Task: structure prediction
Amino acid sequence: MLTPNSIWEKSLKTLETVVTSYSFDVWIKNLRAVNIVDNKLIVAAPSRSAYAVVLENYLDKIVESIQAQNLFVNDVELVTEDSLLEKQFPLPPLETNKEPDPVEKGISLISKYTFESFVVGDSNKFVHAAARAVAENPGTRYNPLFIYGGVGLGKTHIMHAIGNYLKDHNPSKKLIYTTSERFTNEFIDSLRSTNRFSTQKFKEYYRSADVLMIDDVQFFENKPSVQEELFHTFNELHNENHQIILTSDRMPKEIPSLEERLRTRFEWGIIADVQPPSIETKVAILKMKAEYERYIVPNDVIYLIAERVESNIREMESLLSRVALYAKMLNQNITLSLANESLKDYIDHRKAQMSADTVIDAVCKYFNATRDDLTSKKKTKEIVEPRQIAIYLILEFLSLPLASIGQIFGGRDHTTIIHARDKISDRVKVDKKLVVQLNDIRNMIKGS
Ligand code: ADP
Ligand code: MG
Result:
């Protein structure tokens, strides 16, 4: 059956070959096919900055990739995830795009993620030193290398840097780079008897690595068969002094889904963390990115961006491209006032998360509920109503993407969030008591 996803998956395969791997990774991969309306595929961008960049640079290529499929769908409408709220497209459930079999096509390293393009500061000098040591002498001292730290702090970059270094200096080594999600999906696929790639082939593939890199191991689900497979792969590679590199957003002992025997193995080698960068490091990174992209960016703008973003380097980069794009559209130089103008509706997601907390706290206090209740799966009336009110007010106060709100409420999907909001908006029209309650809570929020 023709679904938005199946069309989009085909498109992605083409797009991967017509844009740089960097652009693909940063801008294209995070788009989501939402629906088909008339002959148009509706594609959502995760943020307004991504929307602007894709619209300007990649929309033509996306349309071409759809037209090449020769379907009744021959056009694309780009929207932001936020705007879906207003438009109310019937949303299909979120699915992660399945990728082709690894044996056929592995994930390639991003060539731009090198040691040379990695700015070293106090926050990351330890991980940098460990990564250099591993790149220079894989499979010896630091095995496995376990890298952990917050989102957008350079874990994937440094892991690819090791890979790229080895590709140049040690080309005979077989490198395999994957993610926990992909490893899992491939393994499960391989179990299906109809699949061309048997479990045997899967095992051989991963066990043939001289260097195995697995990104984001916090996403290994609690699936015994997969963890068992990973366990044996780990042992075999480790016994033969083949290098294993892992990244995660937290330490092994803080990954609840991980089996004990894997956890201890992940701690066998060296554990290196990446801390949020200092303002100096943020500035140095921005200057390097500006130079790489050939943007002419005055210092005050660099500082503005560095200060605006709490810690996520990826977010910082996207602000820089947004400012640059804005200047390009207006055909002006980048100045402080232009940057301020183009960033005026930007929200730092960490700050937004904090503000969402303010709303949730107020609602909890008002209804004498706990935060855990509100974010739980409980469906009793005493909890459902405060939960819906909290969601309604968060949407009213903050321009957060639906998916982020879903995350805050215990991993619910965006349709649930829309449903909660609609429920309250409908009731507001008829329920005077609710109107009073909402006003009380609004006042509490404003006062805090
Ligand atoms: P993570 O995997 O930790 O979420 P990434 O490795 O994807 O983060 O990094 C996010 C972005 O920030 C990438 O574009 C990366 O190049 C950039 N980045 C992170 N740390 C640095 C650094 N120290 N120097 C230069 N760029 C960096
Ligand atoms: Mg990463």
Notes: The CA atoms of residues 44 and 81 lie 5 Å apart. Residues 155-156, 215 surround magnesium ion (ligand 2) (CB under 6 Å).
